[in-house]
Specification:
It is built from 12 helices and no strands. By secondary structure, the chain is an all-alpha fold. It has helices at 2-27, 31-55, 67-88, 94-100, 103-107, 113-119, 127-143, 150-176, 184-199, 208-216, 225-231, 248-269.
Length: 275
C-alpha cells in the first residue's frame, strides 16, 4: 500500500509539473509582457505594506508590536499565501468548469484531476507577490532584535512551509464546496485573502473570540501568529498551552487530510454534465 501511495503521489506531482510547464512556456512566449506584469504585481502588492509604514509614522507600536515585528507577520503571511496561490491557486476556477460542463474532460484524462486543476493556467506572474513578501520578510529578520539560534531559524523555515500547506489546503477545501455551491469561490477568497490580511496584524488588536476562531476553527493562527509568539518571545493573548506555538506541522497535516477528504467527497457527489 505504501508503494502504491508513493507512486500515485509521484504521478500527481509529475502531472502538475507537466501542465504547469505547458502554461509557463506559453506565457514566456511574450517575455516583455511577462516581466512588466511581474513588476506590476510586485509593486501593487507592496502597497499593502505601505499602509503599515504610513501607520507607524504616527505610532511606535501597534498592540504592543513594533514595525519589524509586524513586518515579520506581514512577510510570513504574504509569503505563505503567495506560495499556495502559485502552486494551487488555479483550483478556484473549478466552479466555472462545473457550470460550463467541461470538468468531464478533465476527469477522463489519464492524470489526477486535482493536479490538473491546480496547475491549470499556471502563471509565473504570481511570483511578484512572492518576491515582495520575501523582501519584506528579509528586512524584518534583519531588523528584529532577536538572538537567532538554530532552533529559531528552523522554526521560521517550518513556519513558511506549514503556512503554505495550510493556505493551499484552504484553497482546495474551499474550491471543493463549488461541487455543491457554485458561488463558493467568494467564500474561499474571503478565507484565504481575508485570512492573510488578518494575519498581517498582531493578534492583540483583535477580539479574543476572533483569535480563538483562528485556532480552534479554521487554523489560520498556526500560519504565523502562534509560531511568531515563540520566535519573538511574545505573550499569548489567549493563554494557551505553550505546545500550541509548536503545533503548526500538526495543523498542516490535519488541514491537508480535511482537504483531501473534502475533495474525494466532492468527486463522488459530482454527477457530470451528461455530454
Amino acid at each position: 500500500m505504501a508503494d502504491t501511495l508513493v507512486a500515485r503521489t509521484g504521478w500527481a506531482l509529475r502531472s502538475w509539473w507537466l501542465v504547469a510547464g505547458m502554461w509557463s512556456r506559453s506565457l514566456m512566449s511574450y517575455r516583455t509582457s511577462f516581466y512588466l506584469m511581474l513588476l506590476a504585481n510586485a509593486v501593487v502588492t507592496f502597497l499593502d505594506f505601505g499602509v503599515l509604514l504610513l501607520m507607524f509614522r504616527h505610532t511606535d507600536n501597534l498592540g504592543g508590536w513594533t514595525l519589524p515585528e509586524l513586518g515579520f507577520l506581514y512577510g510570513t503571511s504574504a509569503f505563505a499565501l503567495a506560495v499556495a496561490n502559485l502552486l494551487v491557486g488555479s483550483i478556484d476556477g473549478l466552479g466555472v468548469r462545473i457550470r460550463a460542463g467541461t470538468l468531464d474532460t478533465v476527469l477522463i484524462r489519464p492524470a489526477p484531476a486535482l493536479a490538473q486543476l491546480c496547475a491549470e493556467r499556471f502563471s509565473l506572474r504570481r511570483l511578484g507577490r512572492l518576491v515582495q513578501a520575501a523582501a519584506v520578510l528579509g528586512w524584518s529578520l534583519h531588523a528584529l532584535p532577536v538572538h537567532w539560534s538554530a532552533g529559531r531559524a528552523l522554526m521560521v523555515a517550518g513556519l513558511l512551509v506549514c503556512g503554505s500547506v495550510i493556505f493551499g489546503s484552504i484553497y482546495i477545501g474551499g474550491a471543493t464546496l463549488q461541487f455543491w455551491w457554485g458561488e463558493a469561490k467568494e467564500l474561499q477568497n474571503s478565507v484565504t485573502y481575508g485570512g492573510a490580511t488578518l494575519l498581517q496584524y498582531p493578534p492583540t488588536v483583535f477580539a479574543k473570540e476572533l483569535v480563538a476562531a483562528t485556532v480552534f476553527g479554521i487554523p489560520l493562527a498556526f500560519v504565523n501568529w502562534l509560531p511568531a509568539l515563540a520566535i519573538l518571545d511574545k505573550p499569548d493573548p489567549l493563554g494557551l498551552p505553550e505546545a500550541f506555538r509548536y503545533a503548526s506541522p500538526l495543523a498542516a497535516a490535519l488541514t491537508v487530510t480535511a482537504a483531501g477528504l473534502a475533495w474525494r467527497a466532492g468527486l463522488r457527489a459530482y454527477r457530470g454534465a451528461g455530454n
